[in-house]
Amino acid sequence: MFDNIEELRSEDNYQKHEATLKTIRNEIEKLRSDLDDLKHKATAESISSLDLSVTQNVFSVETVENNALWRWLFENKQFKSWKVPHQSASPRFFGLSGAPGAGKTFLATTVVRHFQTQETSQAVGVAFVHFDYRDRKSQTFENVMKRLIQQLTKSLERDSGDSSLLHMKNESARSRPQVEHFLEILNVVTESFSDVRIVIDALDECDQTMRKIFVKMLQSLPAKYRIFCTSRYLGEVDEIYSEWSWLDVSATKEYVRSYVELQVKSSPRLQNYFHAARDLEGIICDQVTKNSQGLLALANSSVCFLEATTSVKSLRKAIIVLPTHIKELYDHTMTRIRKQPANQSRLAITILSWLTLATKTLTVGVINNAIAAMDLEIGDTSLDKDSFVDEAEMINVCCGLVRIDQETKVIRFAHGTIERFFYDEWQRTIPNAAKDILNARDNILLCDSTVDRAKAELMDCIPSDPVPSEDSK
């Protein structure tokens, strides 16, 4: 492939070739513009699906409520006070702070699930926003407000006509709606609610400028709104919310043990092993709890690490070598990935590379397009679906590092600490990631002058400079 490119560059028609590339780039830019138009006109339902996917998991409500960390929060007097509506003495704003891996996202999603499943009154509206530093470009004030409004509209079971509220002012000029504009829409949508709960996860990962605007909006909401927020320790956030009711999340051994038991019981693969070796369940819970050192993130990743084993014998060996630090655990997992057959290892590296450096949240479809782009040859007119890979294979080759939401088909790292690990360590762990992604881009540009939607969507995920800046970390 690369030899062919060099030959093209050395030919007499180099300038003509460059002109063709320019035409291709212009077509891609036009398609990108068309995609932006479609995104602008789309309802907030498609925009909000990524946030909602964070709340989806295999835990039943009954199982979650037996978790010690859940009980710690829901039996807390401050939280109980916040949970009860229409009491002037109770706090409107409740926040959880804590170190990475302490269990903040787990608790935020259980709060959402509680209000969705237990507080079923039509008079209660529930909305959820999960911030991700990798999605800062798309998580604008406008898009976040659309997510909230769509979720609250869905709570009312209204028809799609209400979604037109999202596009009602200055659409022809494509001007960005102001704070007051969205507040007006929000008030219209929630006018029949007597109680509105907004759950915000990982506020610290929101862009600083956007965060100030968003916080100001939250503080201006009527009294019927109750806000639940999680954040890592961050001076600015602490200052902004100094008058809020805050609770520090610190996972004790009991909480971790309960969380591990929950994870283990929810794993079909591990449960299958236990039929042949009943002693393993207790051994796993003991060892993972001991090694996690109070971090739910490490406990979660350790269980995923054990799930990637292929037999009872390999599971017993994996328990013995369980790492005691996050970085050590992920390094160990990368070693296992590299020891797989060449095709499987290459597939895993490709998936991890795109998840690490792509500018947008990825779906299974986009990942498959990326895989197909690696196989493009000069003269090809489209991405070959014969190169596509089954979802289960994607999960298996990555040894528990990624997960796929079955409703939205979004593929992402299995935990935020995994995402952070690769974001910080990619030049060491997947050193060819940037080169591979740029090669995929070159393959698309050189394959043919025809540009289809799949290619344009893939190009839209490729950074112009695939090296994360310090500001985005």
TrEMBL record:
Gene3D superfamilies membership: P-loop containing nucleotide triphosphate hydrolases
Domain of life where this protein originates: Eukaryota
Keywords: Coiled coil, Hydrolase, Repeat
Keyword check for Repeat: yes
Keyword Hydrolase: yes
Protein name: p-loop containing nucleoside triphosphate hydrolase
Pfam short name (any one): WHD_GPIID
